[in-house]
């Protein structure tokens, strides 16, 4: 089911980030390899979103080094963003445009040059119902928006996909569909970092799991260990220890 | 990329009902404002036309009825006799000084409803003919006319604020900006296109309709005037668009942006002009009109009481009229002498009024730069020909015409009196002393109008450029990786 990890695409080394009142990341180090899905687990406030913001180039780390597809996001934001796709908890699309129009717009902004029929095909790949493609996104469910988000990533042929709570609020069926889609992307060689609270999906989909608490990496589980461990108990043990 | 951003922004706008409401509103405002100004100007044109027609009719009628008057044996009251110089000078003359509205008058009615635009000239003290209106300084006169300038100065900025307050900030707070930036888009390009397109949606209908109406309804308008009007309107709206862009670039919520922009509108369009107005009024208060009238009455009474002395002074001032047997003077000569005496006595007060007006004008000249609204409005009012510059030129011409009429009648009346035309024999009618009314001095309506100064436009351009520069700096800061600040960074 899972492809073997290849070379590292995301590298975070000793990342430190502090805001006025608190240090959010305290020497975090992580690696995500090509074709790998890394689930980043941690309680609220652990530093998951701050890590993602540093990877996306929206925040500058105080210390440490980040590399995404070989480039530093803070110094080469444009180059990093060419290689990267991001799907947040709520995919922010233009509500008055249809799914197809949103896909075409954001893809063209990224410089993707494909015919409109190909955009439709991409939406078919992510299983967006045909009747919904031309309807305004304002009427879409959260799962449908996530699918459009995936289609945007597909169109861009991103080498790195960063997901922030992607399955939060999705029904089990939509969540399952979503996990199939990201696994397909991983098989195509995309490095995927998925910050989530959904332990079930993390155990099902991830090749590795990293648990962080208070801005520090407290444990990592390999694919083999994931298969042999009760993830929930393991996670709670670490979080309580860290608390 | 630009084409993509434009087409997508256009799609967004087309799918917003409020866009259509704003476009229709802008068009309706242009139509309403144009016709309000046009009808006002038409009314003035009709009044001027009627006055000039009655002046022409009086000349024609006098020429036609002259034989009848010459042959009449019935008694004729001299003060009703159109062929009597004295009646013409003081009572029956139809001689008008007029300021017809220009073709571009509907741009800004401005001061046209306050300042006089025609005078019926009689030989009276000039204080009774040309100075019977209160002086109101220009800023006071810029308020409240529902004309094109009112729509442009007051209402279009509100529409611009209404449609631009959430440019970029909407994307920023709903998350599309994050996705857009990650796709490699440029936030400054997005903001520029949003602001320009939204501005165009408001400005294009307004300018198209107003220019089209001018061409169709007032075909004599100079195309250069329309070009000037369009340029002023574009630059004024550019300022507001730049201000919207700047406020949006600061990364606040749409509601905060709206509050800031409305405050700016209130400051520039309402509060600052009112403050300037109040300051000028208090710094150089206009003297009381009552004081002026009281002084005028006092001088008139004094001159009438000292009639003989006044007459002597008159002939001393006009020795060319005091030739042979000049000692015999009638009512008319005395009246003209009194008029001249009162005018001379009032000269000091007139100069005082003029100096105050000038002091107010000097202050207006500089203080109007504090508010873009005042600055633009002043230019539009001057461009429309309803401003103080053209009015000053008109009033100067009216005074010259009044002087010409007075001199003409003084000379002719003294001559007729010396000839004994007013009382050829005891109990008989006076001889006709003016038979051709076309020989009366006529008002020269081609008075020169000073050119409108477009220098203030450079101030508008400078302000807009500063705002645009600051906007791009803000957008760069907004999209740059944040070293400090909120946990989510500026782009949530």
Automatic annotation (TrEMBL), chain A:
Chain coiled-coil ranges: none
Keywords: ATP-binding, Nucleotide-binding, Transport
Pfam families found in the cross-reference section: ABC_tran
InterPro entries according to UniProt: AAA+_ATPase (IPR003593), ABC_transporter-like_ATP-bd (IPR003439), ABC_transporter-like_CS (IPR017871), ABC_Transporter_VariousFunc (IPR051782), P-loop_NTPase (IPR027417)
Single GO MF descriptor: ATP binding
UniProt superkingdom: Bacteria
Positions of the ABC transporter domain: 10-239
PANTHER family the record matches: ABC TRANSPORTER ATP-BINDING PROTEIN ALBC-RELATED (PTHR42939)
The protein's name in its UniProt record: ABC transporter ATP-binding protein
Organism field: Pseudoalteromonas luteoviolacea
The organism's taxonomic lineage, starting at the top: Bacteria, Pseudomonadati, Pseudomonadota, Gammaproteobacteria, Alteromonadales
UniProtKB/TrEMBL annotation, chain B:
Domain of life from the UniProt record: Bacteria
Keyword set includes Magnesium: no
InterPro entries xrefs: DUF3526
Keyword set, alphabetical order: Membrane, Transmembrane, Transmembrane helix
Keyword Lipoprotein: no
One Pfam family in the UniProt entry: DUF3526
Transmembrane regions: 20-40, 148-168, 195-217, 223-246, 258-280, 454-472
Protein's name according to its UniProt entry: DUF3526 domain-containing protein
């Amino acid at each position: 089911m899972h492809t073997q990890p290849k070379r590292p695409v995301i590298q975070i080394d000793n990342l430190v980030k502090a805001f006025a009142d608190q240090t959010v990341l305290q020497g975090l180090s992580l690696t995500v390899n090509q074709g790998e899905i890394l689930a980043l687990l941690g309680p609220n406030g652990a530093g998951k979103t701050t890590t993602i913001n540093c990877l996306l180039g929206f925040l500058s780390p105080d210390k440490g080094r980040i590399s995404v597809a070989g480039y530093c996001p803070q110094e080469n934001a444009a180059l990093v963003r060419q290689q990267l796709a991001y799907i947040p908890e709520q995919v922010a699309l233009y509500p008055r445009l249809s799914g197809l129009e949103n896909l075409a717009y954001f893809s063209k902004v990224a410089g993707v040059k494909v015919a409109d029929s190909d955009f439709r095909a991409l939406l078919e790949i992510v299983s967006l119902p045909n009747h919904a493609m031309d309807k305004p996104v304002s009427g879409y469910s959260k799962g449908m928006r996530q699918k459009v988000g995936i289609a945007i990533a597909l169109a861009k042929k991103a080498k790195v996909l960063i997901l922030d709570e992607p399955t939060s609020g999705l029904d089990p069926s939509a969540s399952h569909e979503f996990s199939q889609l990201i696994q397909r992307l991983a098989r195509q060689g995309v490095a995927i970092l998925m910050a989530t609270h959904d332990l079930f999906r993390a155990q099902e989909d991830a090749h590795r799991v990293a648990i962080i608490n208070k801005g520090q990496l407290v444990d990592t589980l390999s694919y083999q260990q994931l298969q042999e461990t009760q993830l929930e108990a393991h996670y709670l043990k670490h979080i309580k220890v860290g608390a | 990329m630009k084409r993509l951003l434009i087409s997508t922004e256009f799609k967004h706008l087309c799918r917003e009902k409020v866009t259509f409401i704003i476009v229709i509103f802008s068009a309706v405002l242009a139509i309403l404002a144009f016709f309000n100004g046009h009808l006002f100007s038409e009314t003035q044109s009709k009044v001027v036309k009627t006055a000039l027609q009655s002046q022409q009719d009086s000349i024609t009628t006098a020429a036609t009825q002259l034989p009848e008057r010459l042959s009449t044996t019935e008694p004729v009251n001299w003060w009703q006799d159109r062929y009597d110089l004295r009646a013409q000078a003081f009572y029956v003359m139809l001689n008008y000084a007029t300021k017809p509205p220009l073709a571009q008058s509907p741009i800004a009615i401005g001061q046209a409803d306050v300042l006089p635009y025609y005078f019926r000239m009689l030989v009276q003290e000039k204080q009774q003919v040309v100075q019977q209106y209160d002086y109101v300084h220009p800023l006071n006169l810029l308020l409240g006319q529902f004309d094109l300038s009112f729509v442009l100065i007051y209402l279009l900025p509100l529409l611009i604020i209404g449609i631009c307050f959430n440019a970029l900030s909407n994307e920023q707070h709903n998350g599309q900006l994050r996705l857009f930036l990650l796709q490699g888009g440029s936030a400054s390009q997005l903001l520029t296109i949003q602001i320009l397109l939204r501005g165009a949606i408001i400005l294009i209908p307004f300018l198209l309709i107003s220019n089209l109406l001018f061409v169709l309804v007032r075909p004599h308008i100079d195309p250069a005037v329309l070009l000037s009007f369009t340029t002023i309107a574009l630059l004024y709206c550019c300022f507001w668009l730049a201000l919207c862009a700047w406020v949006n670039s600061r990364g606040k919520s749409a509601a905060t942006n709206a509050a800031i922009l409305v405050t700016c509108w209130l400051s520039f369009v309402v509060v600052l002009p009112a403050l300037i107005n109040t300051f000028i009024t208090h710094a150089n208060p206009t003297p009381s009109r009552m004081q002026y009238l009281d002084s005028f009455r006092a001088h008139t009474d004094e001159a009438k009481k000292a009639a003989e002395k006044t007459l002597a002074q008159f002939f001393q001032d006009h020795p060319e009229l005091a030739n042979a047997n000049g000692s015999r003077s009638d009512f008319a000569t005395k009246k003209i002498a009194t008029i001249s005496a009162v005018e001379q006595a009032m000269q000091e007060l007139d100069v005082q009024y003029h100096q105050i007006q000038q002091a107010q004008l000097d202050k207006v000249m500089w203080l109007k730069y504090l508010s873009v609204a005042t600055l633009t409005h002043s230019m539009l009012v001057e461009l429309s020909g309803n401003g103080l510059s053209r009015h000053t030129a008109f009033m100067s011409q009216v005074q010259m015409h009044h002087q010409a009429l007075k001199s003409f009648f003084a000379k002719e009346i003294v001559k007729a009196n010396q000839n004994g035309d007013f009382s050829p024999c005891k109990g008989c009618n006076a001889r006709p002393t003016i038979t051709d009314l076309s020989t009366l001095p006529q008002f020269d309506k081609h008075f020169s109008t000073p050119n409108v100064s477009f220098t203030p436009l450079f101030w508008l351009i400078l302000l807009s450029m500063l705002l645009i520069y600051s906007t791009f700096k803000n957008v760069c800061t907004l999209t740059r990786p944040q070293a400090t600040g909120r946990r989510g960074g500026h782009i949530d």
